[in-house]
């Protein structure tokens, strides 16, 4: 028996765990349109307070543009974790910890104009919090109930 089939997946039945879907959509002939449709469907299916997490090698310039095109009330957070071993760990109190950088996005949810990517061989982690509650300044209030993940 394969080890893969003997490991339980600890996700409640109403949550979705998607692996590689968006990156696969970005490889097709109609990549931007197909990826947009997929993200619009993800946004439609998520309930308020839901989370869509995208972990990819896709650079922020392209992925943020795509995530911001979707007509969805979600707030996007970007984290960058270097993929090369010499950058992956930092030592604290004698123990190794994964090194992840949170990138502060602009008001229009883009990279700051002066941002310089330190290591292009990185994992980019986009966390999208869905909410349909909009404040008077058009910012979104997000909850953290459900999670949909795409690697």
Tell me what the structure shows:
It is a single chain. 25% of the residues lie in helices and 30% in strands. With 151 residues, the chain is an alpha+beta fold. A hairpin with a 2-residue loop joins β4 and β5 (95-98).
* Topology as a string of helices (H) and strands (E): HEHHEHEHEEEEEEE
Roughly what percent helix? 25-40%
What overall geometry do the principal axes of the alpha carbons give?
globular
The oligomeric state of the chains shown is: single chain
Q: Give the percentage of residues in beta strands.
A: 25-35%
Structural class call reads alpha+beta
Largest sheet composition:
6 strands, mixed
| Count of discrete alpha- or pi-helical segments spanning 4 or more residues | 5
- Please give the alpha-carbon distance between the first and last residues: 25 Å
Number of domains: 1
Radius of gyration: 17 Å
Low-confidence spans: pLDDT under 50, at least 5 residues?
1-11, 134-147
The main sheet orders its strands as 1-10-2-7-3-6
How would you briefly describe this protein structure?
This protein has 151 residues and is α+β, with helices and mostly antiparallel strands. The protein is built from five helices and ten strands; from the N terminus they run H-E-H-H-E-H-E-H-E-E-E-E-E-E-E.
């Amino acid at each position: 028996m394969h080890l893969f089939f003997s490991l339980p997946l600890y996700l409640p039945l109403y949550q979705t765990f998607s692996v590689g879907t968006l990156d696969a959509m970005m490889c097709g002939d109609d990549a931007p349109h197909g990826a947009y449709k997929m993200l619009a469907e993800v946004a439609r299916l998520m309930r308020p307070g839901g989370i869509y997490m995208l972990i990819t090698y896709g650079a922020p310039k392209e992925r943020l543009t795509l995530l911001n095109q979707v007509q969805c009330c979600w707030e996007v957070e970007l984290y960058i974790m270097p993929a090369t071993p010499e950058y992956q760990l930092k030592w604290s109190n004698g123990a190794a910890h994964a090194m992840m950088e949170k990138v502060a996005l602009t008001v229009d949810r883009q990279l700051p104009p002066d941002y310089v990517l330190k290591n292009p061989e990185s994992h980019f982690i986009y966390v999208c919090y869905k909410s349909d509650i909009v404040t008077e300044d058009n910012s979104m209030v997000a909850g953290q109930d459900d999670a949909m993940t795409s690697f």
